[in-house]
Specification:
It is a single chain. The chain is of the alpha+beta class. The protein has three domains: 1-118, Rossmann fold; 155-303, no CATH class; 308-384, Sandwich (Immunoglobulin-like). 20% of the residues lie in helices and 30% in strands. It is built from nine helices and 23 strands. The longest helix has 15 residues, at 173-187. The two termini are 30 Å apart.
Length: 386
């Protein structure tokens, strides 16, 4: 959710996923204003709402909070400063328990503003404060451009996604493009973006199907789904260096963006299982020349997709992930090639036997497994360590 007042119908959707259970609101500032709103004002039958405000990092060790996470059917992250959430909860029992809730109990999670900013596998940490589009575009390596993929919150459809919020106030498209350029530069990964204008929300189900909420046509409110142009042989930025304005042109089509209006009933949609099927929206091309972002009318991606659905149809899954031992089980499938690289981009040697991959001798850290099948290639982030 984009960061202004909550969209009631999107919140109703969120609460309905709790199936009448318990809702937990986690935040680092503020009070318990969500309690009455969720429990009494939206007309959705749920058992309870409890807000816990974490005032310091030591709260991450509080067993009362741990038990509440274990019992929650829905978890909502409020706004504020995402670095506070990250610095308080990352690599603690809090994020571990939330990830278990998401991936084992299928607990629904959501957030607004900073609470949305922490939901992607990549995220703008704001460790050195916020950054404007102008500052980022004119120096992609400004100290405030802090993009991380240290393991935090995990969701299969958002592993390569970086989100952004308040997209219309101020205009954050430029900095979001810079975040994506840094993901490619720093992690040798093809990131994607999901962005909400202030009064909009994206509601994603367990298959990656998104409903887009807002108040169009009363207000002109948009959601953006951003991806690298898979039609390009080389889609990397022409210039992404320190103290130099970003250039990422690639013939005026460096990025393909699906933009859709949010409506009261969520009638516009987008499918994250293939990143190209949508209803009610339009495709745009985004590119940057010498620090200036340009948006033009675009076309849908026309290339082999790296669809999660196609990979899952071939049972290409990797588990457990993270793996404390560095041993991963690769689901059986018709894969043509496997390559593992470190964050630096260097190739990593590994052992594989009976679809079991062992990275233990390489030590703890983050690695990238690229699996090639007849459908194309998909890169999966592997985490070795607790």
């Amino acid at each position: 959710m984009g960061g202004a007042s909550e969209h009631d119908n999107a919140m109703r959707w969120f609460l309905q996923q709790a199936n009448g259970g318990d809702v937990l609101v986690l935040r680092a500032t503020g009070s318990n204003g969500y309690n009455d709103y969720m429990l009494n004002q939206l007309g959705v039958n749920i058992n309870s709402v409890e807000t816990i405000v974490c005032h310091n990092a030591s709260a991450s060790q509080d067993t009362y909070i741990h038990e509440k996470i274990k019992q929650a059917e829905a978890i909502w992250f409020a706004g504020g400063d995402q670095w506070t959430y990250i610095s308080y909860w990352r690599d603690t029992p809090i994020d571990s328990l939330i990830n278990k809730a998401i991936n084992e109990r299928k607990t629904v999670v959501g957030g607004t503003s900073a609470g949305m900013a922490i939901l992607g596998g990549f995220y703008f940490s704001a460790q050195n404060g916020t950054v404007t589009s102008s500052t980022a575009l004119n120096n992609p390596f400004n100290a405030a451009v802090t993009v991380s993929n240290e393991p935090f919150l995990q969701n299969q459809f958002l592993g390569d996604v970086i989100t952004d919020t308040h997209y219309d106030n101020p205009d954050r498209r430029g900095r979001h493009v810079v975040f994506l350029s840094r993901i490619m530069n720093d992690y040798q990964a093809s990131g994607k973006g999901i962005a909400c204008e202030e009064y909009t929300a994206v509601c994603m189900d367990t298959l990656g199907f998104c409903k887009i909420y807002g108040e169009y046509p009363v207000y002109d409110e948009d959601i953006y789904f951003i991806q690298l142009n898979c039609e390009l042989t080389d889609g990397s930025p022409e210039s992404c260096t320190a103290s130099t304005p970003l250039t990422w042109n690639r013939g005026g089509s460096a990025l393909k963006v699906y933009r859709a209006k949010g409506t009261l009933s969520g009638t516009q949609t987008f499918d994250l299982s293939d990143w190209k099927t949508g209803t009610g929206g339009v495709w745009e091309h985004w590119y940057v020349d010498n620090g200036v972002l340009t948006v033009t009318a675009g076309t849908a991606p026309d290339c082999a997709t790296n669809s999660l659905e196609e990979f899952h149809d071939n049972d290409l899954t990797v588990y457990p992930n993270p793996s404390a031992s560095g041993v991963f089980q690769l689901g059986k499938g018709n894969y043509l090639d496997l390559v593992i690289t470190a964050i630096s981009g260097a190739s990593i040697s590994f052992d594989i036997k009976d679809n079991e991959i062992s990275l233990g001798r390489n030590g703890s850290g983050i690695y990238f497994l690229t699996v090639t099948t007849e459908f194309g290639a998909q890169t999966i982030k592997l985490v070795v360590g607790d």
